[in-house]
Amino acid sequence: MMSARRAMPGLTDRLPRVRGRYDVSADLGKMTWFRVGGPAEVLFTPADTEDLAAFLKGRPDDVPVHIVGLGSNMLVRDGGVPGVVIHLGKPFSAIDVDGLRLRCGAGAIDASVALVARDAAIAGLEFLTGIPGTIGGALRMNAGAYEREIKDVFTSVTALDGRGNIQKLGPADMGFAYRHTNVAEDWIFIGAEFKGTKGDRHEITARLRAIRAERDQSQPTQARTGGSTFANPPGVKAWALIDAAGCRGMVMGGAQVSPKHTNFLINTGAATAADLETLGEDVRRRVLENSGITLDWEIRRIGIANDDPAALVTVGSEVT
């Protein structure tokens, strides 16, 4: 099999003209909370929804596409990401209030949505302050924390399908389950509507502070991490299984299982993506041997390993 570099020479020459920005060999590591990983072959930052739709309509079928938000729950492998990585920036981050409803762009930060809801005295969205990332990622995985999930406040979403056609989805279309939706992987969420209940601004503020305090106390919030590493199996907490398997504080190169919360992996400063993924797989193996339970990755892993012949090499940045 030819490498990605040889298979798709001059990738930007094959991509449709856009009003946004194409960056060649863009450094994805600095965009993720782990601060590791290889480059994107091309990073595309669309100017707006119409620009993104035009790109999807015109892209060649053999060009893979990935979406990156804040990079808070993502591990980019060291060999980089062939194809196009799409980053939804400021044009997709608006948050508007209409009564008890909030209309949010997919690029809006979860914690910012919680704050806007507080300012409007809308209760029920406080849990979002405990979820690092953007609304697009939260929708994709039905993110949840502190006894609530996206599905509990969701009313509708607007998405672009793989060919750039606008699609409107309601709760029945999403197939919400624990850390899962049934929406096709090549569909891109661009905005959503949530509904809360009438609340008291002071009580909402107190709830937000309590969530932040609990999170800071129980999680390594100051470390280079990627949030919860594994989904909780039915009826049990992943951290408890990891702890019982003797994995607390385990080290692989520059990666470590957090001594503070065992369902978090940490880049101690010199980790590679391979260190983190290898450590995570070792944790899964030990948990399976100890409990008979297989942990599923919650962190999204994209790209290829450094030793893959298709690995990308950072050659500087070009803009078209």
User: Regions with pLDDT < 50 over 5+ consecutive residues?
Assistant: 1-8, 315-320
CATH class category name of the largest domain: Alpha Beta
Give the beta-strand count.
Answer: 19
- At CATH level 2, the architecture of the largest domain is 2-Layer Sandwich
The backbone outline, from C-alpha atoms, is globular
Q: Main beta sheet, described?
A: 5 strands, antiparallel
CATH topology of the largest domain: Uridine Diphospho-n-acetylenolpyruvylglucosamine Reductase, domain 3
Q: Indicate the percent of residues in helices.
A: 25-40%
**What structural class should be given to the helix and strand makeup?**
alpha+beta
The number of distinct helices, counting runs of at least 4 residues, comes to: 9
- Mean pLDDT comes to 93
Whole-number count of domains? 3
Proportion of beta-strand residues: 15-25%
Distance between the termini: 29 Å
Largest beta sheet: strand ordering: 6-7-13-11-12
Gyration radius (Cα, Å) is 20 Å
Give the ordered list of helices and strands.
HHEEHEEEEEHEHEEEEHEEHEHEEEHE
What are the main properties of this structure?
disordered N terminus; 3 domains; 5-stranded antiparallel β-sheet; disordered C terminus; 4-stranded mixed β-sheet; single chain; 320 residues; alpha+beta; Uridine Diphospho-n-acetylenolpyruvylglucosamine Reductase, domain 1; 19 strands; Uridine Diphospho-n-acetylenolpyruvylglucosamine Reductase, domain 2; Uridine Diphospho-n-acetylenolpyruvylglucosamine Reductase, domain 3; 26% helix
